[in-house]
Design brief:
The protein is built from 25 helices and seven strands. By secondary structure, the chain is mainly alpha-helical. It comes from Streptomyces polyasparticus.
Length: 785
């Protein structure tokens, strides 16, 4: 390689990966200064390099290192760990971006997006329905209507007819109206959190693209001007989901009162009012579904149109309808007595049925897309999205069923659901059937884990021979060889994740269908339904019911305690931050209540920094990304104009671009997109290790030597003790790629290869009309938690 003819300052922009990092560690200097950015995400330099551009003669033989620190966007705030409770929404959002790659099937692609958005809508309804089950059915209807249960809890006394002596709030309809404030407040809290993060993340202006740049040049949707600006779409989706939550609460209250009015033969006015409200609620539900299905994200342009009719009118109209339903339910009905359960079985059964049908339809659509352009590397042959959507529904079921089971046990002093001696009827039968299926699912998962363990042990034995070949000439040591081979074998487990996820999703779908059929055909909990069966079957059913009820409650408690621990423990907060780094890279396209997309701030930050620095200094630039940072780096390079992109070198290490993103998100990180990226940047080199469980090779041929990938790095660097390594060298795995001499060699080759950017590519940053300033007011880009 020949050095570029012009001696210009070279910049190396470092981007850290999952888990976060400090600028001092990234730059190897305790004295750093912030160059640009804020307390949430910023670019740092060493103090001695702050004015490097004014002293180019000092940097002719070395680059100016900069560190982009974005950990504050994900794990910087302990309160943000509470988003862990909304992990089903995040998983559903991932399913949207997992569609298979396809060309010329825009109608099927739109259908895929609509189905995923409908799955997300059912998750919102499920969460609010679970809150209604706890507040309205178990507490206000069952416990407050049972003298023994209400008498043991002073805070429920004013709702009980016997304890309060027939007080004003003891009427069932008024109890339900008061309890409905709990799920309504939960819906309002979700709206508030989504609106707060929406104002900070989705409001960041992307780098302006040239207006005359044809879309055909964009080989990946990530390069489109509006991909990282989802403000209008998330606002519409948030309004629809908020309305869905409020309508769910209204339906829970109004349906109970309307059922009483129809069955009791009360005043005709109340009967007509109830039927009218039910009709309006049904129409409102159809409007919400239409609003969710009507329009998808626009990313070919920066969408600045905020549909205020939907964003404002739909939630307010739903809130007004909820108020009418509360007034209707609170009307005096002297003969109304709360007995049995509210119609929760029909509600949860309908949600489960709709979710199952949506997942099956999604699988059919995904298979059609995959068949149109099959890629052998695609996870689960295109069924990764439907599998993940099924897991999102399962997580939602565990959380909703868990809270209902635990509250039911607490109110009924631990009585078994369906027991004739129990004081309360308990949660809906379907939730108990679903809980009883959990032990069988765990048995299947355990068997799969045992299979993977056996495969890992066999692979470790094979790797031992490879380790001896890789370190030929070294004195063999069995324990050392076994540790290295074990690290390689465990790292390969990542490639088996599709099998595990696909099997769990399929078993979950089958068990969910079985639970639904069992609940609807018997109308009894599993233990009671199997009471007349042979001893073994009846005992197994009762055991599964008891164990499943405990497990589903334990699963919900685990979510809560993990989030609480993350609020107090910095190490746990970093662990949860890693989950968010991986799960919240993508914009909110299927669920507005999912954790916010940090890349909508990080990618514009990196793009603006590279474009403006290249414009001002006309120097060489290498963006160096580790792990998830390599994904951010690639996304930022895609956003650059073609002229600037040709003057940028890309260095990735421990990168999941192909191993994870290419397999699970083939429509955006498939071979065609990565090949186009490699062709359009000046040069791209990738480092990887066989012991790395996350990063891997890219697998592209190119002009930078025989391929993008450097040959697999040795890990550890030395097998035994040497003059250079007198102590045993550690097995680094996914960390500290800079410790390998190949890192400095590849970086130097990239800097030498980069030619001075073309003059036409260094003009002023192109301008583009942005959204209405009034609509983007307050979009400082600062994290809001």
């Amino acid at each position: 390689m020949q050095r570029a003819t012009a001696e210009k300052t070279a910049l190396e922009l470092l981007v850290h990966g999952v888990g976060g990092a400090t600028p001092e560690k990234m730059l190897g200097d305790p004295r750093t200064v912030r160059v640009t950015g804020d307390d949430t995400a910023a670019v740092y330099r060493r103090t001695d390099d702050a004015d490097a551009e004014r002293r180019p003669e000092d940097y002719r033989e070395k680059p100016v290192p900069e560190a982009y620190v974005w950990s504050g966007l994900t794990s910087g705030n302990g309160a943000r760990a509470l988003w862990l409770l909304l992990v089903p929404f995040m998983v559903a959002n991932l399913a949207h971006w997992m569609r298979p790659s396809a060309r010329g099937h825009s109608g099927i692609v739109r259908t895929y997006g609509v189905l995923v958005r409908l799955v997300g809508l059912t998750l919102t309804v499920l969460l609010v329905a679970a809150a209604c089950e706890v507040a309205l059915d178990l507490t206000a209807w069952q416990c407050a209507g049972t003298p023994t249960c209400a008498a043991e809890r002073a805070w429920l006394g004013f709702l009980s007819p016997e304890v309060s002596g027939g007080g004003w709030w003891s009427v069932p309809g008024r109890r339900l109206a008061l309890a409905a404030l709990v799920p309504a407040a939960l819906t309002g809290l979700l709206w508030y959190l989504s609106h707060r993060t929406w104002s900070a993340y989705e409001s960041v202006q992307p780098y302006p693209h040239q207006e005359d740049q044809p879309d055909e040049q964009h080989h990946s949707a990530l390069s489109r001007p509006g991909f990282w600006y989802g403000r209008p779409f998330v606002a519409r989706l948030r309004a629809a989901h908020t309305a869905a939550g409020l309508l769910t609460v209204a339906a829970a209250v109004a349906s109970a009162a309307a059922r009483h009015d129809r069955e009791s033969g009360g005043p005709a006015l109340l009967d007509v009012t109830g039927r009218a409200l039910e009709g309006v609620l049904a129409a409102g539900g159809l409007i919400v579904v239409y609003a969710v299905c009507r329009r998808s994200r626009k990313d070919k342009v920066v969408d600045g149109h905020l549909d205020r009719l939907v964003v404002t009118v739909l939630p307010l109209a739903s809130l007004a309808l909820l108020a009418l339903c509360l007034v209707y339910a609170a009307w005096d009905r002297p003969d109304w007595i709360s007995t049995g359960r509210l119609p929760g079985d029909q509600t949860f059964g309908g949600i489960a049925l709709v979710q199952g049908l949506l997942v099956v339809a999604l699988a059919v659509v995904a298979w059609l897309l995959y068949r149109s352009a099959p890629l052998a590397s695609t996870a689960l042959r295109g069924l990764g999205g439907p599998s993940v959507a099924m897991l999102a529904c399962a997580l939602g079921g565990v959380m909703s069923g868990g809270v209902a089971q635990r509250v039911g046990d607490w109110l009924d002093r631990g009585a078994t659901p369906g027991d004739p001696d129990a004081a309360l009827p308990g949660p809906p039968v379907l939730l108990t059937w679903q809980a009883s299926a959990i032990p069988l699912l765990l048995v299947v998962v355990l068997l799969l884990v045992l299979v993977f363990i056996a495969r890992t042990l066999r692979r470790r034995r094979r790797e031992q021979a490879r380790v001896e070949r890789d370190y030929a000439g070294e004195r063999p040591e069995e324990s050392r060889t076994r540790r290295i081979a074990g690290a390689r074998a465990r790292a390969a487990l990542t490639d088996s994740a599709p099998v595990l996820i696909g099997c769990v999703a399929a078993i979950t779908l089958l068990l969910g269908a079985g639970a639904l059929v069992g609940a609807w055909t018997t109308g009894e909990v599993p233990g009671v339904a199997a009471a007349g069966a042979p001893g073994f079957i009846g005992g197994a059913a009762q055991t599964a019911q008891a164990l499943g009820s405990w497990l589903i409650g334990f699963g919900f408690i685990l979510f809560v305690t993990w989030g609480r621990r993350a609020y107090r423990d910095a190490s746990a907060r970093r662990t949860i931050g890693i989950l968010w780094d991986v799960g919240t890279f993508w914009p909110r396209a299927a669920h507005p209540f999912a954790p916010p997309c940090y890349a909508e701030r990080a990618v514009p930050d990196l793009t603006w920094r590279m474009a403006t620095w290249t414009q001002r200094h006309e120097g060489r630039l290498v963006i160096s990304g580790h792990s998830q940072g390599s994904v951010l780096a690639a996304a930022a390079v895609w956003q650059l104009s073609p002229e600037v992109r040709r003057g940028v070198g890309l260095l990735t290490y421990g990168s999941p671009l192909q191993r994870l993103y290419g397999r699970w998100f083939p429509a955006h990180f498939g071979p065609a997109a990565l090949t186009a990226l490699h062709r359009e940047v000046d040069c791209w080199r990738n480092l990887h290790r066989p012991t790395d469980p996350i990063g891997g090779p890219i697998g592209l041929e190119g002009e930078c030597g025989p391929a993008v990938d450097h040959p697999a790095l040795k890990d550890p660097l030395a097998y035994g003790r040497t003059q250079a390594c007198p102590l045993p060298a550690p097995i680094l795995g996914h960390s500290d790629y800079q410790a390998d001499p190949a890192f400095d060699e590849e970086r130097e080759e990239l800097l030498q290869r980069l030619r001075p950017p073309a003059a036409q590519g260094l003009g002023a940053v192109p301008s583009q009309p942005g959204p209405d300033p009034e609509e983007t007011q307050g979009s400082s880009g600062r994290s809001s938690g």
